[in-house]
Specification:
Helix content: 25-40%
């Protein structure tokens, strides 16, 4: 019997690393294994020096699920208690203020797959495999099904849980289960790179540009504890953001300003990170915007982008969430955006095309709108977008399917 504990914990700089360490048993879950994993996750979340948590594994495989010997000779109550222990880490991750990144190699199946699905982000080696396979031995992956349900449609969920198939890393990426696939020998470095990019701490000052009614600002503040300033040109949006923030008890971590994001009144070096989500599409002079970002960021500050960009054609189907007229839509291809940022003094440290995931999301939106009653509900997109909102599922799906637009996320830092 090995003297090593089944789960290991260490810190490198501001990254907490949890390593699954039942190598000979293919990192299968036992009660001790599950309890240590859950305890270390909680410890990392409380540690003020830790900004982001990485879960990796020793051996050839990430985890092949719950050890089958745990299912024998148990009463109904004992079985229920076992399942609570085996699922506890999923609930812990869901409530953590720090992002969790899974670094996957080999098989991640059954409860091992559930751990990947529960993580905020995941990078996988090319040779890795995924599956909710308990059905193949007469059981069912109910625990993993919960985080999986947040990533895929109901039909895909049932196909995976009831079918028990094992899928490749490439298919997992296309389905939206993981963020990125890398060559096997680059997995460790790619994981640590993503962890470095993802970490925000309560000490960080974040600017959310084009914040709208403040949803991203409140989410960032609540999940990381950092102070977030939101800015938007539309005063009613800013007023709504302030009201919603007071109503949700987050006013101590958020403030909102009305103003031009290309020419702000903030002092130089005011922010550690700028969050730019679905904003560039309405900005014509991107060079001036990125110059303003450079002025506002501290040295080595981060710029996080999640944006819609130009695809293969100039014309898009309207209306879309950012425009109902071609005169206010200023899409550029990724190569042009990357070039302007480089000229402004930014260095790209991470980039991923999320178009396939966006297609699936907008197809679900399109299907949901078909089921909506004729009379609008009290709350819904129509409050912000009016009648245009009822067409977004159709137009966005068409634009994505015909490659008129693409969706990317990226992180840049100042040289």
């Amino acid at each position: 019997m090995s003297d090593q504990p089944p789960v290991l914990m260490e810190k490198k700089d501001h990254i907490g690393i949890i390593t699954l360490n039942r190598e000979k048993e293919k990192n299968t879950f036992t009660p001790e294994f599950a309890e240590l994993l859950n305890r270390y996750l909680k410890d990392m979340d409380k540690d003020e020096d830790v900004r982001v948590v990485v879960i990796n594994a020793n051996g050839k495989h990430f985890s092949t699920g719950i050890s089958l010997d745990q299912f024998s000779s148990k009463t109904h109550r004992e079985y229920r208690d076992l399942m609570e222990k085996m699922d506890a880490h999923n609930h812990t991750i869901a409530n953590m203020k720090k992002p969790v990144v899974a670094s996957v190699k080999g098989f991640a199946i059954a409860n091992g797959a559930g751990l990947v699905f529960a993580s905020d982000m995941a990078i996988a080696a090319e040779s890795s495999k995924f599956g909710t396979t308990a059905i193949n031995v007469g059981l069912i992956c109910l625990g993993p099904a919960v985080p999986l349900s947040r990533l895929v449609s109901r039909k895909k969920l049932l196909e995976m849980v009831l079918g028990g198939d094992i899928i490749s890393a490439d298919e997992a990426e296309k389905t939206g289960l993981i963020n990125k696939v890398v060559p096997d020998d680059e997995l460790e470095q790619a994981t640590m790179d993503l962890a470095e990019k993802a970490g925000l701490t309560p000490k960080d000052r974040v600017l959310d540009v084009g914040c709208g009614i403040g949803g991203s600002s409140r989410l960032l503040a609540e999940t990381t504890g950092c102070f977030v300033t939101g800015i938007d040109m539309v005063d009613p949006f800013v007023q709504a953001a302030r009201f919603l923030t007071r109503s949700t008890g987050l006013k101590e971590l958020n403030r909102f300003e009305q103003g031009d994001i290309v020419h702000t009144d903030f002092p130089d070096n005011s922010f550690d990170c700028i969050w730019c989500q679905h904003t560039l599409m309405n900005i014509k002079d991107k060079a001036s915007l990125f110059a303003e970002f450079r002025r506002l960021l501290v040295p080595q500050g981060k710029l996080v982008l999640h944006e819609v960009i130009k695809g293969e054609t100039d014309r898009i189907h309207l209306p879309v969430p950012w425009a109902d007229d071609h005169g206010i839509s200023f899409l550029e291809p990724w190569e042009e955006i990357n070039l302007i940022l480089t000229r402004a003094g930014f260095k790209r440290v991470y980039h991923q095309d999320l178009t396939e995931q966006a297609k699936q999301w907008w197809q679900r939106v399109k299907a949901a709108f078909k089921k909506m009653p004729e009379k609008p509900r009290p709350l819904g997109p129509h409050i912000l977008f009016g009648n245009n909102g009822t067409y977004f599922g159709i137009t966005m799906d068409a634009n994505l399917q015909k490659n008129r637009i693409r969706v990317v996320e990226a992180v840049f830092s100042l040289d």
